[in-house]
Structures are given as structure tokens and as C-alpha cells.
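User: quick one
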Amino acid sequence: MFESAALRTRRKIRDCVAQGLIYLAVMLVSLVFFWLLVDLARGGMTHLSWAFLTESPRDAGRAGGIASILVSTLLILLVALVAAIPLAWSTAILLAELVPAESSFGRSVRFSLHVLAGVPSIVFGLFGNAFFSIYLGLGFSILSGGLTLACMLLPILTSTAEAGLRAVPDSYRLSAAALGLSRTAALTHLILPAAAPALAAGLLIGIGRALAETAALLFTSGYVDRMPGSLLDSGRALALHIFDLSMNVPGGDESAYASALMLVILLLCINILAMKLAYGLQRKKIMT
Amino acid sequence: MLTDRVLTGILRSGALLSALIMLLILCFLLLESWPALTGLPVAGFLTDPSWHPLESAYNLMPMLSATLLASIGAITLAVPLGIASALFIVFFAPSHLASLYKRLIELLAGIPSVVFGFWGLTVLVPLISEWQPPGASLLAAVLVLTLMILPMIAITAYTALAAVPDELLQNAAALGLSRWGTIAGVVLPAARAGITAGIILAAARALGETMAVLMVAGNVVQHPESLFDPVRTLAANIALEMAYAMGDHRSVLFVSGLLLMLLVMALSAMAGLLEKHRHV
Amino acid sequence: MVKIIIFSLTNRFGVVAAVIAFCGLVWAVPAVANAGSQRLVLTGSSTVAPLINEIARRFEAKFPDVRIDVQTGGSSRGINDVRKRIADIGMVSRALKPDESDLLAFTIALDGISLIVHADNPVTGLNRRQVAGIFTGDLSHWRAVGGPDARITVVNKAEGRSTLELFLDYLQLKNSAIKPHVIIGDNAQGIKTVTGNRNAIGYVSIGAAEYEVQRGAPLRLLALDGVEASVENVREGIFSLSRPLNLVTAGEPQGLTREFILFAQSPQVHDLIEAQYFVPVDAN
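Assistant: Done. Structure below.
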């Protein structure tokens, strides 16, 4: 290794410059994000209270709380999950366990889901409005909003579940086959329990996406901020409430901050829960 | 076995249904945009004076240019910052700081777009307005989009960097390469496919992002001449006018939805191809 | 896609199950949707919606088993949804046009459209030529109309809003002639934009603007051609930019729809109409 001293110092300088730039970038990113989070916390804290969570909005959301909004959000989420989970997980099981990866059926389904994953949420909104709200006559309702979200969640739930199933070691399948278990039995008793943490984690990722969604719900679940009486009532989701307060309600910023803080906290809890759940399931599996 | 056959049948119909949803979405988009595609001169989408649906002027180009400019701007800012963040986590930071920073990025990845939009509206737009009114502008859209896609780029880049085999690093060390020499000459090329795929996905997200952009971009239909001009993107246009649109107007909005979807599909096809190359 | 279908044709069970499941989804859902009958859906004008919300609340208090859903989205959507039978009643903040003669309109109140600026802006009134100049970009500076030393931020409405149509009609302009800096959707968004920008000028429903001024929003309604933009002047019929607020139905209203329209036109709700700064009209 014959290096001139000049070359070496030049490299050292380059190293230092690169490191400096990277630290600078990281500092910038952290700074901006702390700015955002601190703003959110400061703006929301003063308004966030127990009453805010348990009262329904009054005066277009300037006063009162977000109880009815939370209920609507929860119902939309439930509809979406009830519709999406069976489809997504059966697709995942089929793709991972029963159909060879290179079969044309598997490839076509996977391709279709891959495309679906890239569709912008506003396009889901357009589709949901045309199909669920108008063609099926569901109108602006929690049901049409939830079903639209279900279409959106399908690729996420499927791909996370498929990855989880594929991560189950083949020895499970081989030993099940050796014991003469049917595929159904092997699935329900061995493979699904083994993949459960992955399924749960995928589910929570999906819930996070659903909670954050606004554009797909704008023309499907509607704007009504009252307590929903049934799934056919229109209900305003939390993210949409933030949008409406900040865009359409003069003097609505305080409530918007509080709602935004609430939404971020909710998403944070879901993330933490996801990890806890996955960890717990893994431990249980080892114990038994 | 019978149960197996039944199970396979059920699963197969589930999978079929999932696949059909894509088809259904395409069908309905086409169905709704059909009146505009057949009834209006298609050249009008390119040559009409501007976007004035009530005067039957349906030029989509100003919004397409705004969409592309906003996305390109966001990518230009987010890529260096995102890759730097990933490099920081993998190579530069002490381990506790690395995991802390990674947490922060993951937390940010989960923040909903409407919150970014809200923050942009209450903080960024007034700031820009002090400097160059009216504040709601292409610049605001670019900045908000940057914040939104940065975590995505950082996380995919991190995954790609972490997947670079240790032997490569050891070999580089054995050759006496400097730290930056190793990164620029060995690590980044090895992780290139993964990083690029992440960037393409982020670009798709930026193109399709609606609410955050709607809230900060000012929504005037025009080819922007400067960063401070208000613009309207395709997705924001759909959100803004959909509720009010009827007849041809509604149909053209579905055409713009279709256009958006094709753009995004082309991008994800590119990402898919890259992915394939990486594995081969 | 075709591949999927062809491939699964070889698996008859799967196809049959999928088709049954799919048809089930398609057909079962509307059946459920029609189950609830004591429901009224109103969509349309964001100007009328807050008023109808209040009226609906009073109506529901009178008839507890009725539920009224109000969705905003502009007058054209109100008309569109009534035609498509998505809504029972459309809210339309203008008179019906000749090509809308298939619908019936029931006027419940009168409203005007006022230009609004930030309360810190010293300008108190404009004439029609100045307004046209500002909105077409010929007058781009507040000094040109006796205002502060600042560029004007023109706030225009998005297409499809009847407020926009009426305003353009008054100025005798096409929307393509307007050079806006910000485009907004609802009245409230316009008010929010103007209260947040000292140099902005926009136009919204007088009712909405006075309501917000009363609540302390930093906002000023501009006199137009020397006539104060106020509820009184709309009532007197001397304010040039005024309009009827209508409920619209497809065909003669029946049952609950009829009940509600009669209720909204009755003196029982005049206090609500006045509370929103609109002018009640006497149903004859």
C-alpha cells in the first residue's frame, strides 16, 4: 500500500466532510420533526381533556369534544377489518401454503395486489363513491367508508400475512405431513399459531393506515359529525375531522390541534401494542 | 382429504375475490370516465385554454405539471436527507443514538398526512407568507411532501443498507478503504437496487398524496412560474371538486383519477422490475 | 386478469363459491341499506347546510324516531343527488335554472353575498368596477382602492359553487377571466383564509360572514356600490348580490320529505333563520 500523504489527508478531509454533512442532515431532520411534535403537543395539550374525549362536538367542532367522531372512526375501522381480514388472510394462506409461487394463479393474484397497493387513496375514494355509495346505493355511510378502506387494506394485510407465513420454517410442514396431519389441521394447529405474531403485526399496521386515512373517506363515509345510530349513518372519521376543523372552521385550530394530538397518540399506542403483542405471542409459543 | 379440498376451495375464492377488486376498481374508473373519454375530444385534455369545467375547458396539463413538480421537488429534498438518515443509523451513530433516531423516523412514518397538512397550514404557510405572499404555494407543497416521504425513504434505505453482507465491509476494511470510501464505493452500490425501489415507492406516494397538498398548495390551476406560485395537483383537484361535480365534469375527474393511477402503476411496475433484478 | 379467470374455471368449486360470495355482497348490501325508512338525507349548498342542521335538530326533537343527515357539497351536488335519488332533498343557494325545471324548489330564506376583508384592512367599500378590476388582476395593489401598501391576495371559490356563479353573474365575467391566488371550497374556508391573511379579499354568504363577525372573527363586510352588506338591506331588496335559499325535490314531496319542507318554511323556525343571519320568507 503506497499512498502519498496528500492523498491520505484528502481522504481524511473527505471522510470528515461526509460525516459532517450526514450529521447536519440528521440534525435538520430531527429538528424539523421535533418542531412538529412540540407544536402538536403544545397546541393540543391545553385543549385535550377527559371531557374532550367523552363529549360530542358542538358548534361545528369549536366546542365540545370528539366522542361521536371516535365512535364513527371505530365503526369504520371495524367494518373495514371485518371485510378485509377474511379475504386478505385466505389469500395469504393460499399464496404461501397451497399454490406454487410460480403458478399463473399465484402470480396473477400477487400482481393484482401489488398494483392495488400502489393505488393512491383518493382513487380508492373515487371508486368507493362510484361503487359503494352510488352503484350499491349505500350512500354516504360508515358501511361504504369501511368497505372502501377494506379494499385499501387488502394488499397490506395480505402481504404482511404472506411474509409471516413464509417465515414459518418448512420443518413444521414436513413434520405435520410426517405425522399424517391433513393440511387443514397443520394450518390451524401449527402454521397459523406460529405465524400469529406476524399476522398481528400486519393487522396493526393496517389499523394504523386505516386510522390515518382521509382522502378515501371524503366521498364515502361523509361529513356528519353526530353520533352514528347505525352502520348506514354517515360518520366523520377522526382524520377527516382534523381536516374539516383546520380548513372549514374559523377558530377551529385549537380543537384541530387536540384532535391531531389524539390521533398521533392513538397511532403511537397501536405501534407499541403491535410490538408488545408480537413479543408476547412469541414467548407463549416458546413456552408451550 | 375432503376438508383440505373444501379449505382450498374457500381460500381460492377468497383470493379470487381479492384479485377481482383490482379489476372492479379499474372497471368502475373506466365506466365513470367513459363519457368523457368518448364524448369529449381527448386532445382537449392537452389543448383547452385551462381548467374551467363549467366552461367546458378541461386542460389537465397545468395540474399534471404541478403534480410532477411537487413530487420531483419533494424527492430532490427527501432523497439526500433520507439516505443520510439511513447511513447515520447504520454506520455513523453510536448504537443507542441509532436506535433512538430509528424510533423517531418510525414514529414519523406513522403520522397521518392530514396532520402534516394541518401543521403545514398553521406553521409553514404563514411563514412563507411573511416572505412571499400568499404563502400557500408549490414550495409549501414540496416541503410538506418532503416531510411525508422522508421516513419512507429512510426506512427502505436502512433496510437495504443493513442487508449489505458483512463480508463486503470486511473486504473493504482489509483493502484499507476509508469510511466514506467504503460507503461510496462498496455499500451504496451494493444497496442501490433496494434504495432505488424505496425512492420509487416514495415518488408514487408523493404523486398520489391528496389531503396534505390540498391544505397547503393554494389550489390555483396554473403552470407555476416560481416556487411561490399557488398550484393545484391532480389528486387535490379530485378532492376539491368531486363533491360538486356533475356530468362531464365528474367524468373528467375520474379520467384524472385514472391518469393518476396509471402514473403510479407505471412507477410501481418499475419498482417491481428493480426488485426482480436485485434477486436475480 | 384474464389468466386468473381462465385458470379458476378449471376449479369449478372455487368459481361457484366466489360468484355466490360476490353476488351476495353486491345484492345483500342494498337490501340492508333500504331497511331504515325514517331517514331524510339532505345534500347540497354549504351556505344552507348550517341552517338546515339547526332546523333538523328541532325537527328531530319533535319527531324522535326521525334521523336527518345533512351533507354539504355545493348547490350543484344538491341538484345532482336529488336527481340521482341519493338525497331526498337538495339544498340550493340560488334560483333554479331553466334546465332544472324537472325539480321543484321551496324557498326557505333569502341571503346575500358579501365581499370580505381582514378587519385590519381600512377599506370599507368598493364599487362594481373596482371589484371586477381586483378579481381580474387589473388592480393588484390595495393602494389602488385606497387600502394599505400591500399586494392583494384574491380568494376565489372552486367551480360548482353557486356563490361563485352568482358573483360572476354580478360582475358579468367568466371564471376563466378571474386571476385568483387562493381557491377555496366552503364559506367557512373562505372566512378562515381571509381572517388568516391581512391582504386577502374574498366573498361569502352574508349570513355566514355576519355569524362569524358576531363570534369575534377579525373580518369586515365591504359595502358594495355604496350599499351596506347587511341582512336588513337583503330584506329590503336593495342589496344587489342577493339570492334565495331553496330546498329542492324531484317531484311533489311526499310523507316525511313534505313534513320537513313545510316545517322549514313555517314561522316555527324563523328564529333559527335569523340566528344564522338569513332573511325568513313567508310561505304562501
